[in-house]
Write a structure and sequence with these properties.
By secondary structure, this protein is α+β, with helices and mostly antiparallel strands. About 30% of the residues lie in helices and about 25% in strands. The two termini are about 40 Å apart. Bound molecules: adenosine-5'-triphosphate and magnesium ion (MG). Magnesium ion binds next to strand 16.
């Protein structure tokens, strides 16, 4: 009986003695003087490859096997044997090899030499065939799975909020407008004032910047919910931590206050990091050795899992920054929105571990955050981690209607537009809280990949929407 095995399964000692079929893409071929060849293939199931020994007696040995190059796809059949080679438990002694597709070595971009991550972005359709991007894809998958498991185990409901929305979650980010109006015609006819009655939704509509407001409606009926969906921000910031399209996990909980929210955020992150270490051992070892310059990635992650996150009010953070004597590009004073350099100072130099900052000035935070009694701060929280900076942003929500309306007026928002959001406060209001975790920032932290464009399959950034 021939069993179809993944490379990952075939690399395990328990496969020894099995008659198997292996399918994948050739990484390398080496010919031995003794008249046979070693072919390494990978099928994406694991970081490591499996070696196939192809005897010279095969029918197509001269005609095909000896022409195999990186990128060719094959099916190899034969027996899995114990391997004498170093660093591999098993190999296949093949009795047949079928070639499905050739990859011309003169034009196939992924030859053996190492390419820069920048260059590989031009080949985003082929880069998952490299060690690094295969590993990123597997770790990203592990993290997504952990997120669902974490919430499902605690009886959160997974809810789906709309991608197209007419509310803007109060300037969480610049928005992409969605329209069916003919922009060329509008330009040609020099129409200045658009009449949205002729647009698809009868009013200006956008790609969502956050599912929070809608998630709140479900939390205020069903208790604990979370969304996990794409989010869009037309931020013209070409940084290594921003995408125009990214994935966000947004839990929202009724009868939750800020400390509960912090506990949940901390345990979610620890769960994700722990699962990556225990479930993706081989890939994580690869990131530690080959991606992280200091080879301390595994140690850093373990430290984060074992440590208590620092919880620090914004006001104290500002005092620490001012007293530090550090030269920052942006001067620190109470009331400013902390810049990435400040956040990094706190988490990378001062505390050397994750920091949850909370109680921010109300002037720099959106209308929906709960107002503290001091009359100047709101119950916002940002979770900062070394290397990445902000990974989570959240808050306890304002559940008192009059306070909410006052804040909306102060921020020049049209209260009528948010009538349904206000209704949650009008009918059976409850304290509630939630946060948003950027999936890509989490993948960056876990893998140590420095650019966010390299942890999502097809990055969308200003000027880039290829593939
Ligand atoms: P930042 O200050 O880093 O721009 P933000 O404060 O605008 O982020 P939030 O609105 O709090 O972000 O969004 C919640 C989370 O979503 C952030 O903590 C981050 O992990 C992620 N996130 C926000 N914007 C982006 C983006 N443009 N690309 C990727 N992830 C993002
Ligand atoms: Mg934020």
């Amino acid at each position: 009986m021939t069993e179809k095995l993944s490379v990952s399964a075939a690399r395990n000692e328990s496969a020894i003695g099995k008659n198997a079929k292996l399918q994948g893409w050739v990484r390398t071929r080496r010919d031995s003087k003794a008249g046979f060849s070693f072919i390494e293939i990978n099928d994406g199931s694991s970081q490591g490859n499996i070696q196939i020994v192809a005897p010279g007696e095969m029918d197509n040995y001269q005609s095909e096997v000896k022409s195999l190059t990186a990128g060719c796809s094959i099916t190899a059949s034969g027996e899995i044997k114990e391997s004498g080679g170093r660093g591999q438990a098993t190999e296949m002694l093949a009795d047949s090899i079928e070639v499905h597709g050739w990859a011309d070595p003169d034009t196939y971009p992924l030859q053996k030499k190492r390419h820069s991550y920048e260059k590989l972005r031009d080949w985003a359709h082929l880069r998952p065939r490299t060690n690094t991007f295969g590993a990123v894809a597997r770790v990203r998958n592990c993290i997504s799975n952990s997120i669902h498991q974490f919430f499902q185990e605690q009886s959160f409901l997974y809810v789906n909020t709309p991608i197209i929305t007419a509310s803007d979650c109060e300037g969480a980010g610049e928005m992409f407008q969605v329209t069916t109006m003919d922009l060329n015609k509008i330009a040609a006819e020099k129409i200045e004032k658009l009449n949205y009655r002729f647009d698809f939704f009868d009013k200006p509509s956008y790609l969502t910047v956050s599912g929070q407001l809608e998630a709140e409606t479900y939390a205020c009926a069903l208790g604990k919910v979370y969304t996990f969906a794409p989010t869009f921000r037309a931020e013209n910031s070409n940084t290594s931590r921003h995408l125009a399209e990214f994935w966000m996990v947004e839990p929202e909980m009724a009868f939750f206050e800020l400390p509960d929210n912090m506990d949940l955020a901390e345990s979610l992150l620890k769960r994700i990091f722990g699962d990556a270490l225990s479930r993706c051992g081989e890939d994580m070892a690869f990131f530690n050795e080959r991606v992280d310059e200091t080879h301390t990635l595994l140690e850093r992650l373990q430290n984060v899992i074992d440590s208590d996150f620092v919880r620090l009010p914004y006001t104290e953070a500002v005092e620490i920054l001012i007293k530090s004597g550090q030269e920052f590009d942006y001067k620190v004073e109470w009331g400013i929105d902390l810049q990435s350099e400040h956040e990094r100072f706190l988490t990378e130099h001062h505390f050397k571990k994750p920091v949850i900052l909370f109680d921010y000035p109300d002037t720099i935070k959106p209308f929906y955050m709960y107002c503290n009694d001091d009359g100047k701060t709101v119950r916002a929280m940002d979770v900062l981690v070394p290397g990445v900076g902000e990974i989570i942003g959240g808050s306890q929500r304002e559940h008192r209607l009059e306070v909410l309306e006052r804040r909306m007026k102060l921020q020049d928002l049209d209260i009528e537009e948010y009538w349904w959001y206000a209704d949650l406060r009008r009918f059976g209001t409850v304290p509630h809280a939630g946060f948003g975790l950027g999936l890509e920032r989490a993948v960056q932290f876990v893998t140590g990949m420095s650019n966010i464009r390299d942890v999502i399959p097809f990055p969308r950034t200003p000027g880039n929407a290829e593939f």
